[in-house]
Design a protein that fits this description.
CATH architecture of the largest domain in chain B: 3-Layer(aba) Sandwich
Oligomer: heterodimer
Number of strands of chain A: 4
Number of helices of chain B: 14
Radius of gyration of chain A: 37 Å
CATH topology of the largest domain in chain B: Rossmann fold
Shape of chain B: globular
Helix content of chain A: 40-55%
Number of domains of chain B: 2
Distance between the termini of chain A: 134 Å
Number of domains of chain A: 2
Largest interface: A-B, 19 and 23 residues
Strand order of the largest sheet of chain B: 2-5-8-1-9
Strand content of chain A: under 5%
Largest sheet of chain B: 5 strands, parallel
Chain lengths: ~450, ~350
């Protein structure tokens, strides 16, 4: 027979045991939650950092594939982390079992927790409670589980360190590309010599941005339409289209991540030199005396403002032989014709496409503006310095464009072999157009005599 | 004679009594500590014990010593091929009364005692062996339509001789299942044998002291047995015992754990013909309860179940010829089952 006071004391003891088990459970579940959250954050941060760095360092297609793989890995990792946290979640019997194991209580707590709600308790119940309470110090929450913070904090810290390093790493690796682009001179190419074809599926160059006046762009659109109509391989074109779309998607994603969309695109100013384009005459401001020196054919020029990198354009090897003669110069624009808006003297950073474009420009004498110094007519040597830019009413569109050799014309997505550049010898200097400047009157005769000779 | 208190025993009383009986037995029995502990565990768990051992390992001596230590009535039956059931249970005989009238009177057999030793039980015919079934399971015998109750505690210890198998009758499976434990008595090691020699060839008697008074011995043993039943078992441990038993059954060797992960033991499927019966699970829990009391606990733990698993389950598992040819015994199976179920994390 038990008295009410004895029952109360027994209930208090039982309550103390259950309270301690509850504390253990609370701590275990806290760790379970931390495990899931920390691992999830670590995975998200690490993958985000990897994608961020990849946006800077990888080409679009590789970046897209890598990002997709990372996202899949991250998703599975998050699911695993959440599942692990779920498995670590302890019920009251589970917490009691953990406490039994760690405190070597041989099932005392598990039995108490399991049988505490039973209305009929055996005669040994009070002994069990008393006996278990004697081990109260053994199953304190701090002793059963000393950690308040899950070990998953280490992966999280590591991921945060990686993320912290990702930004400077991406900037360090990306800095030369930005400088290269900003220092690059414009390109001018003849529109008639511009052969269009779909980009190679594996081509990772990010293309270039073309700016031109309205007439030139119309001609370019017509040319694009003709080239597309001439392309016969439907399956190949659709494949190319898919690849290009994927590349565009990746490029856009990279641009959003890096915030360097403008710097990543080459910009070409496309101009018509044809006299028939009357609506462009005001913008072109050609001098009458230079018109007669034009070669007469409809030609255009590409003006490259910010090429992305040296490998942004692939040229056939035959262009490399003409490389020294094809260097553009920031000071070589005509006085009223095409004006370079770069104004830099970094010809060595232009690639083969630039070389070819400039050579074509020189050979065709397309649109140098008034008194463009094409070097053939001494009468046109002197004129007003180039001050105004052409194409003030022009507009910009982004296209995937590249110069190709004639051998690749009509070949659809034919592979263009990589260009091999032959460096100049120490005695050679690149042939650079000289920017039109004001020439002192005293020197004009001397200069003229030199060119007449 | 006895310093064990007569009132309701406590956990400490149980452990103290148990250890004292153990000590008394070991005055005579050298070595065999585990066998003696399993024997006493089976006694207090309310079961019976099958003792297997080669001749001369102290089987009969062990049982005799136990009877003396407990101060309970003790009988011994030497099972032979011509032993009849009535030789065990008793029979009705014609006796003359004081008035000269003759009438049939039941003459109790050796089964009417507290501790019964069936020596070399496999030498008797199955019919005779089965005479023990009712006594072991129901603590009663029926002779000529009349049922006679046996006085508790009733503890049957049967010995088996694993050699000299000619002319023997292996125990029926049903009878094997009625033994709570099967205890093996192996050869003593060198040190134990030396002590056996010195203690049994001298003039001194071992001087076994009974732990209980004769008039209260039965009641004390019964109260201790009742205390064993009061030990608590968490539901998770009952599930664990059930899974252990089911895992010994070839058709159930593929069972599902808490994590819905199927645990499949190929060894059971390959070597086991029949697994343990539900009595095996009862034996696991009861044996675990005795061990818990010996450890001063009022609750069982998984370790207690594992500790008694071989003794409780091995003799309930029937192996096939593949096991015999591969040298696999039931103890191996039980150990493997324990590992499998433990890995499944109840």
């Amino acid at each position: 027979m038990s008295f009410p006071s004895q029952d109360r004391r027994a209930d208090e003891k039982l309550g103390e045991i259950l309270g301690r088990v509850g504390s253990v459970r609370l701590r275990l579940n806290s760790l379970a939650i931390q495990h899931a959250v920390f691992y999830t954050l670590a995975i998200v941060i690490a993958c985000g950092a990897a994608i961020f760095v990849g946006a800077y360092l990888m080409s679009p297609l590789i970046f897209l594939a890598g990002a997709a793989v990372l996202v899949i890995i991250a998703a599975s990792g998050i699911v695993s982390a959440v599942r692990a946290g779920w498995r670590m979640w302890a019920s009251a019997p589970g917490a009691a079992a953990v406490a039994d194991d760690r405190a070597e209580l041989k099932g005392r707590l598990s039995t108490i927790v399991a049988l505490a709600k039973n209305e009929t308790r055996g005669p040994l119940w009070s002994y069990l409670v008393e006996d278990t309470l004697g081990y109260r110090d053994e199953f304190a929450a701090a002793k059963i589980e000393r950690r308040r913070v899950s070990r998953a904090i280490y992966p999280l810290v590591a991921a945060m360190l990686v993320a912290a390093l990702a930004y400077p790493i991406s900037k360090i690796r990306h800095a030369p590309r930005i400088n290269l682009g900003s220092d690059q001179d414009d390109l001018t190419v003849d529109l008639d010599d511009l052969h269009l074809r779909p980009a190679d599926p594996g081509d990772d160059s990010s293309g270039m941005q073309v700016t031109a006046d309205a007439a030139t762009m119309r001609r370019l659109e017509d040319k694009l339409a003709r080239e597309n109509a001439a392309g016969g391989d439907v399956a190949g074109n659709s494949m190319n289209s898919l690849v290009n779309r994927a590349r565009d998607l990746a490029g856009n994603l990279q641009s959003k991540l890096t915030g360097q969309q403008s710097a990543s695109k080459q910009r070409l100013n496309l101009r018509l030199a044809d006299a028939d384009q009357n609506q462009d005459q005001d913008e072109i401001h050609r001098a009458p005396e230079t018109r007669k020196n034009r070669h007469g054919e409809i030609a255009g020029q590409f003006k490259q403002e910010m090429p992305k990198s040296n490998d942004a354009l692939n040229l056939p090897p035959e262009d490399d032989a003409r490389q020294p003669n094809a260097r553009p110069s920031s000071n070589s624009t005509g006085d009223a014709g095409v004006e370079s808006d770069a104004g830099q003297d970094n010809p060595n950073k232009s690639d083969g496409a630039s070389d070819r474009s400039i050579q074509q420009s020189g050979e065709n004498s397309s649109n140098g503006g008034e008194a463009h110094g094409v070097g053939a007519d001494p009468d046109s040597l002197f004129g007003a310095p180039a001050t105004s830019k052409l194409g003030t009413e022009g507009f910009e569109i982004a296209i995937e464009a590249r110069p190709v050799d004639h051998g690749a014309k009509g070949a659809g997505h034919a592979y263009v072999p990589p260009k091999v550049r032959t460096p100049l010898s120490v005695d050679q200097q690149p042939d650079e157009p000289v920017a039109r400047v004001a020439v002192p009157a005293d020197d004009r005769n001397t200069i003229k005599q030199v060119f007449e000779r | 004679m006895s310093d064990v208190q007569a009132e309701t025993p406590t956990v400490a009383d149980f452990a103290r009594t148990f250890r004292r009986i153990q000590a008394e037995i070991h005055k005579v029995i050298i070595g065999h500590e585990q066998a003696v502990e399993e024997l006493l565990s089976a006694l207090f768990a309310g079961g019976h014990v099958l003792i297997e051992g080669v001749p001369g390992t102290g089987k009969t001596t062990l049982v005799k010593t136990l009877g003396l230590a407990l101060n309970l009535s003790f009988n011994r039956i030497q099972f032979t091929v011509d032993l009849m059931p009535a030789d065990i249970t008793g029979t009705r005989v014609i006796l003359s009364g004081d008035d000269g009238r003759r009438e049939f009177t039941f003459q109790p057999g050796p089964a009417f005692c507290h501790i019964l030793l069936g020596d070399e039980i496999n030498r008797a015919t199955p019919k005779t062996q089965s005479a023990l079934l009712e006594a072991m399971a129901e603590l009663q015998v029926t002779v000529s339509g009349t049922t006679y109750r046996l006085k508790p505690p009733y503890f049957v210890m049967a010995t088996l001789n694993p050699i000299e198998m000619e002319g023997t009758y292996p125990l029926p499976e049903a009878q094997l299942d009625r033994f709570l434990y099967k205890v093996r008595l192996n050869y003593p090691d060198e040190g134990e044998l030396t002590r056996i020699i010195s203690s049994t060839t001298g003039p001194e008697d071992a001087g076994i002291e009974a732990v209980f008074h004769a008039d209260e011995a039965a009641a004390r043993v019964e109260s201790l047995k009742q205390l064993v039943r009061e030990v608590m078992a968490a539901p998770a441990l009952e599930i664990y015992a059930a899974r252990l038993v089911r895992a010994t059954q070839p058709q159930n060797s593929r069972f599902v754990s808490d994590e819905a992960k199927a645990v499949h033991d190929e060894m059971v499927n390959r070597y086991v013909m029949f697994g343990s019966s539900p009595r095996g699970a009862q034996a696991l829990i009861l044996g675990a309860k005795v061990r818990a009391l010996l450890d001063g606990r009022a609750n069982i733990a998984r370790e207690d179940i594992d500790h008694v698993a071989i003794a409780a389950l091995a003799h309930r598992i029937m192996l096939n010829y593949a096991a015999l040819s591969d040298g696999i015994d039931a103890a191996h199976i039980v150990e493997r089952v324990i590992k499998s179920v433990r890995a499944a994390k109840v």
